[in-house]
Amino acid sequence: MNSFNHYAYGAVGGWMYEVMAGIKIDENKPAFENIIFQPITDKRIQHVEASVETKLGLVSSQWKREGGTVTFVFQVPEKSTATIILADEVHQVGAGVHTFTLRE
Known about the structure:
Elements: H1 7-20, E1 23-25, E2 34-37, E3 47-54, E4 57-66, E5 69-76, E6 81-86, E7 89-93, E8 96-103
């Protein structure tokens, strides 16, 4: 019998949310009061989409590679803020849907 309730499986899921999608908890403002979005893209992957339901609402991150650009879309719930880190750019945003496009 194989147990799927094992740390190794959770670690992969955690890596996908925190690294690929870039959804991170701000330790200075826990419980998603401020979300840190810092996705790490990889040219071998064309599209990533992840979301998590929090007590403040839905947090989501997605990015898609097309024609030499990468488009990022982040959703920040009401009563939350976010720090978005993309390459050398840092953006402080409030609630809502935020879209950014970067050239590769």
